[in-house]
Amino acid sequence: MLEPGQPAPDFTLPDQDGKEVTLSKLKGSPVVLYFYPKDDTSGCTKEACDFRDGFADYEKAGAKILGVSPDPVKSHAKFAGKYELPFTLLADVEKAVSQAYDVWKEKSMYGRKYMGIERTTFVIDARGIVSRVFPKVKVTGHSEAVLEAVKAAK
């Protein structure tokens, strides 16, 4: 797992509109990079809507929000439209970025083991350095905690 103080691994992924987004091109602004398992599922929807509801405060803090999951562009477009998400969703279909950030993990549900995203958020400062890591995120209250970390990272 990445630790605070380490450079955030650079990447380029397509967003919900099919446009490429490169992390290093966002230097100069703090970035909230949050990894979530799947579009339009209960926990992921609540997390996305909490970031949406706090979006004006993130903008005031100068931060960009990037949500990443293995879902394809089309799924992200539908999810973003359905919940009026004002931030960027990135399609990590090959899971290369999830692996680079060490959030692609073995999980277990009802005794069945499978690979999936461990809900994790990284706050990256304006220089591209990880300033805070929120592993194994519990959704309730998460957006507020992340916003405080963004403000502290400035």
Characterize the structure shown:
- The protein is of the alpha/beta class and 154 residues long.
- It contains five helices and nine strands.
- The strands form three sheets. Strands 5-4-3-8-9 form a five-stranded mixed sheet. It has a two-stranded antiparallel sheet with strand order 1-2. Strands 6-7 form a two-stranded antiparallel sheet.
- A hairpin with a 5-residue loop joins strand 8 and strand 9.
- The longest helix has 12 residues, at 42-53.
- The relative contact order is 0.24.
- The model has no long low-confidence stretch (mean pLDDT 95).
What are the main properties of this structure?
two-stranded antiparallel ribbon, 154 residues, alpha/beta, 28% strand
Straight-line distance between termini: 23 Å
**What is the number of helical segments per DSSP (H or I, 4+ residues)?**
5
Q: Tell me the series of helices and strands, N- to C-terminal.
A: EEEHHEHEHEEEEH
Read across the widest sheet, the strand sequence of neighbours is: 5-4-3-8-9
Total beta strand runs: 9
Major pleated sheet: 5 strands, mixed
Shape descriptor: globular
Query: What proportion strand?
Result: 25-35%
Radius of gyration: 14 Å
Residue-averaged pLDDT, rounded? 95
Spans of at least 5 consecutive residues whose pLDDT stays below 50 are none
Short structural summary:
29% of the residues lie in helices and 28% in strands. By secondary structure, it is α/β, with parallel strands linked by helices.
